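To assess whether the prediction recovers the assembly geometry, we first specified each molecular entity separately, as shown.
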Amino acid sequence: MESFYQLPFNFVQCPNLKLKKPSWIRKPSNTTVLFGLLVSYFLVTAGVIYDIIVEPPSVGSTTDEYGHHKPVAFMPWRINGQYIMEGLAAAFMFTLGGLGFILLDQTNKPNMPRLNRVLMILCSFIFILVAYGATKIFIRIKMPSYLS
Amino acid sequence: MLLTYYFWIKAVKSGSIMWSASCALAYFYMVSSWGGYVFLINLIPLHVLALMFTGHFSHRVYVAYSTVYILGTILSMQIPFVGFQPVQSSEHMLAFGTFGLCQLFSFIEYVKSKLTKTQFDTLFSFALVTVGFAAAGAGVVLWASGKIAPWTGRFYALLDPSYAKNHIPIIASVSEHQPTAWSSFFFDFELLVFMFPVGIYYCFKELTDANIFIIMYGMTSIYFAGVMVRLMLVLAPVMCVLSGIGISSVLTTYMRNLDVNQLKKSVTSTAQSSTRARRNDDSSSYPRKNEIAFGVVCMMTFFLMTYVFHCTWVTSEAYSSPSIVLSARSGDGSRYIFDDFREAYWWLRYNTDEDAKVMSWWDYGYQITAMANRTILVDNNTWNNTHISRVGQAMSSTEDKAYEIMRELDVDYVLVIFGGLIGYSSDDINKFLWMVRIGGSTEKGAHIKESDYFTPQGEFRVDKSGSPTLLNCLMYKLSYYRFGETYTEQDKPPGYDRTRSVEIGNKNFELEKLEEAYTTEHWLVRI
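The predicted structure of the complete assembly is given in tokenized form:
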């Protein structure tokens, strides 16, 4: 085995290098990975892929009876169509709602100062209710016949 | 798919061959039913790799994966459509590579336990050099000589969504293949889009083998559902699973905080107007634990109830209507039914020769075959891109050129869908641009250019300012024959197309090579 192993070194001389794995490459912690996944969730539910392929405008525009151009935030009536801004806004609401629940879970830690806990609970309730309400309003604007 | 995943988790947890064999059988069932099995045979090796990276690889995973891979691959090769793909195509190479890696990993662990450290190091470096080189060399040779097929079009389009748009218009034209907008996510899932990250968070809190699998399944399916609307159905089960984990964890945590006796006592004490408020032990750092827990539970109940209302509404409005019979609400609210499709298919069935051939766009192929019982040229399952392209060329050319193509294909009847009389928006004129793109994508249709069918300003119009190529092509003529004399709406000129909301540009023409055989009551189907 030794002679086989030595075979390439009859032709090639090994350079005098000192290679070490750089110390800053570490296995990422749970929180880092969770944060990364939340960011990718935000991007995917915002319809970023839809934006790249179909290239809709950032906001739509309609002309009213006086000839003025008015911006339209939500592409009406199409379930699988969006403008870029409305996609980002909706995805922000989704992630906000998720973060609210995650925060709600964090409030149950045993040793926490009272102020922190109260603020966290307040924040999480606000996040959840605002996100849910806003999303319902968005879909109602987009599709007036929703839930009727 | 879910059965395969269930058995896989059971196999990974227990390490028993019985569960692994059941997983392989369920995988065989999946392979025989849907091409989506490629997702399974890539997710399971990805899970094994993730377990290796996070240090969770154990003998149980080794037994489970080896059994599943061997039995599953042999079973899947029994399906004629799959054949030898598991050893030849790139889509299956990850599974193969992971299998090899599993064996190497376990062998190294075994040898490590038997040898001393120095002996092991020498053997390890020797093996790495020889085996590594040999494997890499073999891989490069196989890939360069083309023996290992690259990723096929429809799966490559998932990794690079712009590929289909630029190269294969037939894949890009299917409306189910469009990328997903935010409203599709919300429409199909409502509450679950909020609970999905929560479920992932709870899985991260306790990283077991099974939790790692669910996290990977969730993240890969949400990416794929974002690329293609149709793959929402792959996302749906894992969305439910993760949201279930999230909801049940939130409720468990807060039900523990809830102390019903405490609440009852506080209610009776306020009734007796007692000023002594009862507090919890850790009231200093957690004020009103009970009330907040009560609030959270009420809120979750409210969300779940509205979720039920949402789901029943969506199912009744969007997922319950047959697409072959259309309905609309008239001014006084009553429902009006358009049964034109079936009317046309029955006419074909009883008024044409048994061996008559019908040319239509491929969307209607299955319907014509099933209901009219006539031979068609192209249907939803046609893989022959050139054939579909030929039909597209016939529809986009002038009547004379189209007649030559139709003689060549031995066509007796041409069927088009026209929505201009009633305002139906999924008719063939609206799909026409896709026919032009697909028709122009092969060699014989190289003279068909999409830009010829637009106005000089780049708009697709059927009125007087429309492009002459469009106003004289076969599809236009067949759709608008005799439409120029028809009144569709009050105080609009004859020949007013209600779908495009314009008066058509080319009226009062005669068909030279074809004649009208049948038009349904609302002009939806014209033969």
